[in-house]
Amino acid sequence: MTTVKAQQLEDFIARALQAVGLPADDASSVAGLMTRADLIGADGHGVFRLPQYIRRIRNRGINVRPKIRVVSDRAAMALVDGDNGMGHLVMSFAARTAIEKAKTAGVAWVGVRASNHAGPASLYASMPLAHDMIGLYLAVGNANHLPPWGGIDMLLSTNPLAVAIPTDREPPLVLDMAATVAAYGKVKTKAQRGETMPEGWMMDRQGKPLTDPKRADDGFLLPIGGYKGYGLALVFGLLAGTLNGAAMARETVDFNKDEVTPTNTGQAIMAIDASAFGPVDEFKRKVDDVARQMRGSAKLPGVERIWLPGEQSHGRRAEREAKGIPLPAPLRVQLDGLASELRISPLT
Fold it and tell me: Are strands 69-74 and 77-81 parallel, antiparallel or unpaired?
């Protein structure tokens, strides 16, 4: 592992994206969100994805100058068409739209179609926090790695959910989870680092545990909670994909293998204005109290600490802001090669 300062990484990502045609402001926005993913420890969604994004842009699989717009609009909802733009830009637009509507309506749901992979779900669920709002995010994953419960046909993706709840003095409560035991990005990072997967992440088509990430195509991800996770993946996909006119099931494009076809990724975000339900400060203090009750509750033998959703990411961000973001040697080599290919200055 080597480490790099967050600002250096952000600048490098922005240079790379500008080199393939993104306007400077858009490249800066995407770079900031990708770097934030690495800061919170979502290593499969940050700079790790940059070479893949670059390939899709160069193959015209992503539109570098999209006209992101609202195509359906009511008081507490909107439907956004991303015009096949970078998912980070599309979802940022959708989040801002939801926040503005929630200021008036108290709650707003914004669906998205014609988007792309946008990084970790928590990035967008957390955006309403700055406005004392609760955020909820759903998405259809960009490749199918999950069959219906009891089947072997890949018809579903990891289809994540994130919920962010504001607090007073405690770190915000941020739940970010896939409907599968592990997100596929974690499988890819394990493969790049030459590591094995724990049993329970994947299964082969004969029903046996699969622990070699380089053999991921020989099997499929396992849902959380058995058939319940399958049900969640299905419902999340219908809400984030089918409802918005986005891809779902057999229409889903595997962006790991297809660098040309627009993915028509579907996403959704909801913003809930806490002030619509009562005094915001009182609500946040009560959330703090609940959090402290959880953390301070009796523990099983051998358990050092009870963690709350988002606490470890919060701590990891503070650590990486101070000490730098770790980059595995294979990824560093890949990024150096990308810099040479794009004729931009490499990471220092």
Answer: antiparallel
Which residues have a Cβ under 8 Å from the Cβ of 278 and sit 6 or more positions away? none
Longest dimension (CA), the chain: 57
Instruction: Using 50 as the pLDDT threshold, list the residues of the chain that sit under it.
Output: none
Task: Provide CATH 3.30.1370.60 ranges for the chain.
Answer: 65-180+223-295
| Region of residue 158 (left: phi > 0; alpha: psi -120 to 50; beta: else) | alpha
Instruction: Report yes or no on whether pTM surpasses 0.70.
Output: yes
Give pLDDT tens digits for 203-235.
Answer: 999 999 999 999 999 999 999 999 999 999 999
- The Cα–Cα gap between 18 and 35 comes to 16
Note the CATH number of domain 65-180+223-295. Answer: 3.30.1370.60
CATH 1.10.1530.10 holds for 1-58+323-348 = yes
CA distances (Å), 137 to each of 34, 117, 178, 225, in order? 17, 13, 11, 21
Going through the chain in order, the beta strands assigned E by DSSP cover 2-4, 69-74, 77-81, 107-115, 133-139, 161-165, 173-177, 202-204, 209-210, 219-221, 265-273, 325-327
Q: What's the one-letter identity of residue 36?
A: R
Q: Are 268 and 112 in contact (CB under 8 A)?
A: yes
The answer to whether the beta carbons of residues 110 and 239 sit under 8 Å apart is no
**Residues of each domain in the chain carrying CATH 1.10.1530.10:** 1-58+323-348
Distance CA 343, CA 348 (A): 15
Please say whether the beta carbons of 316 and 29 come within 8 A.
no
